[in-house]
Amino acid sequence: MKPAVFHVLLALADGDLHGYAIMQAVRDQSGGQIPLRTGSFYRHLATVIDDGLVAEAPAPRGVVDPRRGTHYRLTPLGRKALAAERERLQALLALLEPKRLPASRGAR
């Protein structure tokens, strides 16, 4: 799974969000390491919607701000995909545990 897609799914794991809020969440949770501009974000979003991982959702009750645009939610299939990716990443990290890795540059 592409890192940007993983972060989009992760952003929606706690609840429905509109597009800009998803982009902010991706930036925050990745520490700015996943550069999502509007165009690339909506391309990734279209892919996860086409794959059935994300669906459009109604705006939260009482929210009638047209600037917030469409809201999105993680589908059950999207939750399964996110869980599978979590397991894959945990397995990779487990492989690193017994390894003695060289110190990073600048470390003494």
Describe what this molecule looks like in 3D.
By secondary structure, the protein is mainly alpha-helical. The chain has one domain (3-96): Winged helix-like DNA-binding domain superfamily/Winged helix DNA-binding domain (Arc Repressor Mutant, subunit A). Helix content is 51%, strand content 9%. It contains four helices and three strands. It has helices at 3-12, 19-29, 38-50, 76-96, and strands at residues 17-18, 54-57, 71-74. It has a three-stranded antiparallel sheet with strand order 1-3-2. The model has no long low-confidence stretch (mean pLDDT 87).
SSE map:
Elements: H1 3-12, E1 17-18, H2 19-29, H3 38-50, E2 54-57, E3 71-74, H4 76-96
Antiparallel strand pairs: 1-3, 2-3
Q: For the terminal residues, how far apart are their CA atoms?
A: 35 Å
Main sheet overview: 3 strands, antiparallel
CATH architecture: Orthogonal Bundle
Q: Helix and strand string, N-terminal first?
A: HEHHEEH
Overall 3D shape = elongated
The rounded Rg comes to 17 Å
- State mean pLDDT (0 to 100 scale): 87
CATH homologous superfamily placement = Winged helix-like DNA-binding domain superfamily/Winged helix DNA-binding domain
**How many distinct domains?**
1
CATH class call: Mainly Alpha
Number of strands: 3
Unreliable residue runs = none
Strand content: 5-15%
- Which fold name is given in CATH as the topology? Arc Repressor Mutant, subunit A
Helical content (DSSP H or I, runs of 4+) = 40-55%
H/I helix tally: 4
Strand order of the largest sheet: 1-3-2
